[in-house]
Amino acid sequence: MVRVPKLTRAHVAQAVRNPLLFIAERWTPSPRTVRRAAMSAVVMAVVIVVTGGAVRLTGSGLGCPTWPKCTDDSLTATSAMGFHGAIEFGNRMLTYVLCAAVGWAIIAARSAKPWRRSLTRLGWAQFWVVMGNAVLGGIVVLVGLNPYTVAAHFLLSTALLTVALVTWQRAREGDTAPRPLVGKAVSQLTWLLAVAAGLLIAVGTVVTGAGRHAGDSSDVHRIPVDWKTIAQLHADLAWVVVALTVALWFVLKAVDAPVGPLHRARDLFLILMAQGVVGYVQYFTDTPEILVGVHMLGSCLVWIGVVRVLLSLRERPAAEAPVPGPAAERPEPATAG
User: Fold this and answer.
1) Which of 40, 197, 153, 180 has the alpha carbon at shortest distance from 105?
2) Containing H/E element for 179?
3) Can you say whether the dihedral through the CA atoms of 234, 211, 86, 92 is positive or negative?
4) With 60 as the cut, is the pLDDT of residue 330 above it?
């Protein structure tokens, strides 16, 4: 039998005032648990992007025509709303799963011993990004899927993915000052790659906003640019990112960089090649929904690859515990005369 601790009124009051501290005083997660909690937030950040794409690609963007309720009279989708209402409401419910994953990451980071304030702050940063994007998602519905708000919604999801990745990486490191593994020129080239990849994703949202997948069968406003022209710009930026990735790999090889950055650059190149194949196939097949969804997943994987390359350029070793002096140098215990 496991003895259940007795809770007093003082314990309940403490739990209400500061629940995180209450949990931290009674639970110490292993480093592996903290890393898994951080990874769960990364996974859910990707899942919410993919399911959001499914809402758009099935024409279910206004399946729940208002927000925060699903209809003026119902908090949830009704049977009369059919398939589209179920898809849109299901995506809204996944936001709670995302919140649970982020909450687990915060609790695990706060309960770890020793407590790392920087890790907890990254967890809370994820929470506030999720809250902001939930409100923005409501605005997207209220303004009838305006493509500019839809683009902002996707970009804020990418920001969440970035913070979640950084949190996961920091959970695997120590709290010492970062130590660069490459020279300044290589770091600058990598940041140029990151900027180009960010532009690639941003232009991709314009391609979607000008394309035929408006998100609903009603008359939804589209971004007034030529779709083929902006798609060509998107493809050109993709080749720029590929060229910078190849250049980075050769530079890392030339300067005899550690295997970590080399492997991350190689992984990014492979992801870009796969994403490029999907992009060209969907372009020449009139953007079928399934391929657009795969391309949205690929966008997340590309950005994950870019962030991992950036994070691989430095290390934060765990602080070493002080080593006690040799026994011969310790004072002998006093003996009775």
Assistant:
1) 40
2) strand 179-180
3) positive
4) no
Whether omega for the bond prior to residue 317 falls within 30 degrees of 0, making it cis, is no
What is the rounded CA–CA span in Å between residue 54 and residue 62? 13
Residues 6+ apart with CB under 8 A from 154: 49, 52, 205, 208
Q: Is the peptide bond before 114 cis (omega within 30 degrees of 0)?
A: yes
Nearest to 153 by CA among 304, 253, 296: 296
Q: Distance between CA 57 and CA 84 in Å, rounded?
A: 11
Show the DSSP H helices in the chain as ranges: 9-17, 19-24, 31-57, 82-111, 117-142, 147-171, 184-210, 227-254, 259-284, 289-311
pLDDT score of 52: 93
DSSP state of 322: P
Nearest-angstrom CA–CA distance, 134 and 92:
9
Distance CA 307, CA 190 (A): 10
- Looking at residue 113, its amino acid is K
Residues 130 and 106: their CA atoms lie apart, in Å, by 13
Q: Is the dihedral of CA 93, 98, 101, 104 positive or negative?
A: negative
Q: What's the pTM?
A: 0.89
Residue 319 has pLDDT above 80, yes or no: no
Instruction: Say yes or no to pLDDT of 48 above 90.
Output: yes
